DNA sequence: TATTCTCCTG
DNA sequence: CAGGAGAATA
C-alpha cells in the first residue's frame, strides 16, 4: 500500500479540521461553530455528518490510493457542500450529502437553548468524531518504520470506515433525533438521581436533627440551590454524611439479616441438605464470597483450620458489605429450590446468583440508589469503609474485636495482618453501628457448631483451604529459602504438612518463592554492579560473609527477626550467585535481554537439603 | 493447553 | 508481596 500521499494533502486533510491555523480553509462561520459554540454547530451545521463524511473520504483515499482529497476535503471542511466531488468520486456515500441538507433544516433542537450538560456532552461527541476524522491522516506523517502498525491500523481504519458508512446510510435527521433523545434521557436520569439523593439526605437529616436540613441540604445539593449556600459546616457535614451512611448501611443490613433469619427459621424444617442449611445463615451468605472457581471441597480440615475459618466469617463479612463483588460467589446452595431463594430476596433472579454481592443478596436497593451510595462510599468521607479493595474474602482482613473469639489462630492472624495491611482498621473506627451487626450472629454461635458447619460446607472449606497459608507459613517459607531457592511442589507439600494443598495453595507457595528469588537476584545484581563500580578486579575478591552488607540485606528480608541461624551453605550459594552476576556483568553479557537465565540455571542446582525439623507442622 | 517462571507495577 | 502480562516449558 502506498502511503506516500502528498504532504499538502495530508495537511489539508488532517490539520484543517483540527486546528485553527488554516483560516483560508475554514470559513469563519464554521470555525465559530466548531470552537466557540459546538452546540450551534450541532444543531445548525451538522458538523458531525460533515466530519464523518470527511473521515470516509480520507480513509477511502488511503485505501484506494486516490489523491483527490486536497480539493474535496478542503471544500468539505469549509462547511460548503461539494457534492459534485463527493458523489462523482464516491458513489457509495451518496446518501450522505443530501441528508446534510435535510438534517440542517430539521434539526430537532431547532433554536431552543440547551442545558449546559447537553452542550458539554455534545462537545465531547464532536471532539471524538474530530479525532476520528483526523487520525488516519496524521498517521501519514509517520516514517516507514511503522509500516506494520500502519497496515494494521489501516485495516482498522477501513473497518471503522465501513462502520461509519453504515451509520451514514441512516437518515441524518433521524440520527440526530436519536442522539438528542438519548442525551435528553441521560440528562433526565441524572436529574432524577440528583433529586433522589437530595431527598435521601433530607430524609435522613430530618430524622437526626431538623435544624440540619437547611444547612446540609444546601451544602450537599448545592447544584440545585435548594435553600442557599453554606460553607461553614464542612466538617460537620462530613461527619454527618459519615454517620448517615453508616446508619443507612447498618439499617439495610440489619433489615436483611432479620428477613433472612425469618426466612431461614421458617424453612429449616424443609428438606434441605446440610450445605443448604449452612448456607442459609446470613453470616454464611455474607462471608462466602469464596474463590469458588478453584479448589475442591475439603471435608477433612484440621481443627485449627476450622477455628480460623470461623474468624473468617466475621472478617469477610466486614470486608464485603459494600464492596463490589465481581468474583463468583458461593453464597447460594448447590441445588436451591428457586422459590426458596427468590422468596427471601425477590431481587435475586438466579438461583446460583453468581454475581451477587453478599450485601446485594439480601438487600438490593434500586439501581440508582446503590450507585449513589457506592459513589458516596467510594469518594465520600468514609473512605475506610467504602474503599475496601476487592480482595478475596479469604485474604486478610480482620476484626478481632467484633467477635469474642479466643482462638489462637484468630489472635495470630489479627496480629500479623494488622501490621501487614497499613490501612487495616478496627471495627470501632467503623462507627457505633457500622457493620458489626453483620458479625453479631457469630458471637451467638457455638464454636463447635461453627466448626461442624464449616466442615460440612464445601464452600467454606474452599475458603479455608485457600486460607491455609498463614503468615507463619510465609515466615517458614522464607527460612526454607535459605536451603532451597527452587523448591519442587513435592518439597513444598512435604514441608507444609499442615496445609491442605490444592492448586491455589501450590501456586501461592510457588509465587512466594518466586518473590523470594526476585529479591535475591535483585540484591545479587545490585551488589555485583556495586563491586564492579568500586573497581573490584578479581572475582575472588568478592566474598559473602555474615558481616557482608549483602548478607545483612538478605537476612533482613528472609529472617527479619534474626532468630534463625542461617546455614553456611547459603552464604556459599550467595557468593556463587554474586560471582555469577559479577562475571556476567563484567563480560557485558547483561546487554543480552536474557542474560540472567544462565545464572538462574546455575543457581537452581545449588539447592540443598532442608532440615527435617521444617517438616513438622508446629515448626515456628 | 496448563503450568511455571520472570518481569513489571503498585 | 500480590497481581498481571508474556514467554517458556511440559
Q: In the CATH hierarchy, what is the superfamily of the domain at 471-615? A: Homeo-prospero domain
In the CATH hierarchy, the third-tier topology of the domain at 471-615 is known as Arc Repressor Mutant, subunit A
Helix coverage percent: 55-70%
Order of helices and strands: HHHHHHHHHHHHHHHHHHHHHHHHHHHHH
Overall structural class, as computed from helix and strand content, comes to mainly alpha
Please outline the major beta sheet. none
Poorly predicted runs of 5 or more residues = 1-114, 131-175, 208-237, 263-467
Would you give an account of this structure?
This protein is an all-alpha fold and 620 residues long. It has a domain of 145 residues: Homeo-prospero domain (Arc Repressor Mutant, subunit A). It has 29 helices and no strands. The longest helix is centred in the N-terminal third of the chain and has 37 residues. It is globular. The protein binds a DNA duplex (10 and 10 nucleotides) through helix 26 and helix 29. Pfam families: HPD (PF05044). One of its GO terms (cellular component) is nucleus. This is Prospero domain-containing protein. It is found in: Nucleus. Its main location: nucleus.
